[in-house]
Write a structure and sequence with these properties.
3-stranded mixed sheet, about 280 residues, two-stranded antiparallel ribbon, binds zinc ion, 12 helices, about 55% helix, mainly alpha
Length: about 280
Amino acid sequence: MYNNGGGGRRGCGLSGAKLIIALIMAAVAVISYMSRTEKNPVTGEKQRVAMTVEQEIALGLQAAPEMAQQFGGLDPDQATQQLVDKVGNQIVASSVPTDNPFKKHFQFHVLEDSQTINAFALPGGQIFITRALLSKLETEGQLAGVLGHEIGHVLARHSAEQAAKQQLTQGLTGAAVIATYDPSNPASRNSAQVAQMIGALINMKYGRADELESDKLGVGFVAKAGYDPRSLVGVMKILAAAGGRGGPEFFSTHPNPENRVEKIGEAIELAFPRGVPPGLKK
Ligand SMILES: [Zn+2]
């Protein structure tokens, strides 16, 4: 991104060169400040993140109504919402360490959209599942599998990582917006820029590595919550069957479910070398 015009274009005077160097140094300072490297306590990996935990939680809360709007609003069926809350909260209670800053901020939302088979996580703990995907699931364990995967994205801070990458490729706009965003004082923000950030968050796609990491985390979370982790394999089969050309949007944000089945199997074997314990809920 730092095009110094090398390889042909010369004639930059000394003061011009100094200015460019100063600008580059300022840019590097802002970027390295904004994309701090932190060790993630859940994945154990060092990651570059572009937001503080508080900023993630606040942005997710702000983006949630817009996300709901894009998928026909929230589903009015309270019984379904309660089931999703029950399973989601059970996973959070049993799998998220007490001192994890996201623990208290998870919220689960059923979207009324009956066409789009999908589930999403916004940063900070806002999790969504469409009625269309819910209607395909056969067991509570499969619901746990979907929610466990999305909880994995939040705890692994994939949005903050993605935002750090995008700042590096798109320049300082994102960094500047985030730098001025004070989550405890939403009035301090430039609302047009935050709206842009929210738009970017809603359309953000995770990479394949992120998806596989969330599958792996999901396996552990689901089992800890008392569900059979093999139900995640069931979810992938349902998604594959529902797929096909121009199929559900799930495939634009999630890699091919058939390849994931194999990886999920490996994660289960790794977590339970002596086999999955009996008595877990399907
Ligand atoms: Zn995912």
